[in-house]
Amino acid sequence: MSEINTAAPAAQNGEAKPAKKKISLSFIQPSGAITLGNYLGALKNWVAIQDSGEFNCLYAVADLHALTVRQDPKNLRQQIYQGLAVLLAAGIDPEKSIVFQQSHVHQHAELAWILNCYTMFGELSRMTQFKDKSAKYADNINAGLFTYPALMAADILLYQTDYVPVGQDQKQHLEIARDIANRFNGIYGKTFTEPEPYITKAGARIMSLAEPTKKMSKSDPNKNAIITIMDTDAEIIKKFKRAVTDSGSEVRMGEGKDGINNLINIYSAVTGKSVEEIEREFEGKGYGDFKMACGEVVADTVRPIREKVTDYMNNKDYIDEVCKKGAFMASRFAQRTLEKTYKKVGLVLPKAD
Length: 353
Ligand code: TRP
Description:
Elements: E1 22-28, H1 36-52, E2 55-61, H2 63-66, H3 73-90, E3 98-101, H4 107-116, H5 121-125, H6 128-136, H7 143-157, E4 163-166, H8 171-188, E5 196-199, H9 233-242, H10 258-271, H11 275-281, H12 287-313, H13 316-345
Parallel strand pairs: 1-2, 2-3, 4-5
């Protein structure tokens, strides 16, 4: 795709115009190794949306959001590149989608300021992510952490986004983005598209290998509990061998059998096989065999991505080039929305020379 479809509304002469493609947008935080859950629940789906050809897609690394918790600058730089490398390695194609770094499109921070003025203290206070993070980083409850959703709303609304594919944990942030858009449109007339959530199911259900009632989370201090896409084959196999299961032995979904249910879900998400097919395939075999099989299919899925991430990380010039082109395309569109917003609220735009 050469640019976002910005076609003007159909001409007056009644000529048929091709339908305008919907816009799908999602960002990832540059916060270290991405888990199998993130891959299956988000990235894999982003690639499918891109490849469907039905959407104009934008994917970015939310580097400004990362600053809401204290970062080591050197480490952050590396994580930003890694986030971009992961997007590309997972199959996001810069020829089809716009790929960029949030901070390269200055309109994000600018629209976020405006939206901050239309976002209420009360609604921000209710955000569960804010509550969780302020408990976790009690010595750094900064204003950015609090207004994080206004920046995320800016990310979305700048591009008149129709769909935002995110995991369940971001649903509340998406709802507030819709509320902000709706409030603004109510005051000034239609300015922003109200985005629809596109909550993905599979990955939202990938649980910890050590405590299968808990979600697989990249911040889990127990590294045996999570699979990341940078894990080696041997590490993956070992982690699956150690995965916690109940005292049963049959490879069958069942009430309270959280460990085996999780492994069956993972196997299903990775291979595309249904639960019934899997149960049939492993009939008469024990947990040991199944864990081994899970390790192998996951290693086969992760390996090519890991290898590509490594290649991209050795070719940062390429990543820089992708981002430069992506930011150029994104900012042309973003600028239109920003100017429209500035005008609506009554700011006087600088006069052209
Ligand atoms: N908050 C999202 C997360 O932590 C990342 C994000 C930032 C995002 N801006 C976005 C996701 C816009 C979707 C759309 O995962």
